């Protein structure tokens, strides 16, 4: 048995998969922001009770966490000391010498304080050049004195990021040994381990961020393991990486910077699986939870991987799934601006506590979920009867906001949903229209607790069909964790012109990186038959500032021939991406090896449908507000809708973990894999 756990801002979602019979059990429990491990332990206890299983039978727990992200966003990380090359103490302050513009942007810029302060930074007498040659030898005596001064000042973690350490890590490792001997309790991160690539600021800030969240992540994982042990679980714990891969809990505590986008990764992984199973190769992942909405593009059945991301005001140069987030979710609060007297929604969120007014946990400000309740889109009871909603309270709260604008509760609720939809539409436009993609060439996968409530409206605005509502949309991210694979990337910066270069220099370095990859796969106990190693080169035209990654097949690497075919492939890719190829020398920038370990796919057994026609699926008929008027709307039990039967809109389709709103002039039907597809009526016209 495997358990996927996704901690969100409002709910903690859990999915238990029994590989012996294909049974999938899901559960949702309120998140506990003050200590996420409490909500996780509560959820594990709940799902074991629901499934009727002994916690000891769970062999593997796969967990996506926002601990690292929240620590950076809230400025609540550890106090980090920083060792740099002498003369480069202001690396984090200078950053990339970039200010928001144009014109007077720098005047109003609120520049954030670096994650490692200047008073906790020391310049070490030493220097390497870009070839990895020693220019100034390391002064061990002065370095030791500086380390003593810094490490005795109360720092909680230490980053060592020296100039050109990617080319030769000798001095970084020597400093680490001094710290280990004299201050063994202080965790140390080396930039040559965390990010062995050129570009000084990116390398320094990524390594500092790793240390900034490292003590917090270590404490969190320790608490999780203690609480799980108290529930009788002795299973292995793995954490989901930002690129959708898996890493052991021990690796995550050492390199937590690789988890900064851990949470959204599961939903993207599941969307990829949906694309492959349904044959709908181009999809938009639309994950709307209680606090935020995450969107991503699946192109030809593959996710988009970015080499860097941003966490708040700081860049993090780690492989991540390309996900855009906006502060619009079911808990986003609606109010009226005092300055403009206009309605606004988010980014403030009611979170898990007190939550929307309809949750009955003390919330007083109306949220997006309350607007859905007022319009009759959400039934008065959720989670299979476990959660009752305060309909009257929601109507009163939304009515108070509407009264400030001379609107009735229905009109105010509709306005709240329209504004929330526009915010999410902006994020979808960024990942499609602004990148040259036509949204009409994509379907949209709706998941998260609130995704299916809004997806049909989003599709109507963008023209992207079908809307795909998976079997378990409310817990799809947790389900995606179960389908994630072990993954790690090994990089070596090697800047050389390919003109006249001995290709054997490349193949030898690939062999060294491959050895590191195999060593990591061994440490993660990945069976030999489940291993895959992929190779690529970062190339650019000479004097360019950015690179293009060119994949290289294993046969080419093993043949150890020339680089002519690789360079021609680079020219083709450059022309495809930018519409032009240049007849100038090509420069090699970096070599990359990505190691992956496959995991067992989740084979869900589709439950037999209890009804034989649509009438058997009808729960009740309730009034809902569509196109400015109340309409008697059928509410259906999704588990009883027969495959292939068209459900005409408007309709509300209910299930344990979410509610789907089917708009007028649309219809829905189940496809063979159990996914609910929504199409406009005009499709069959």
Automatic annotation (TrEMBL):
Report the superkingdom from the record. Answer: Bacteria
Q: Name one GO molecular function term.
A: 5-oxoprolinase (ATP-hydrolyzing) activity
Span of domain Hydantoinase A/oxoprolinase: 203-489
Sorted alphabetically, the Gene Ontology cellular component annotations on this record are: cytosol
One record GO biological process = glutathione metabolic process
Residue ranges of domain Hydantoinase/oxoprolinase N-terminal in the record: 2-181
* Designated name of the protein: 5-oxoprolinase
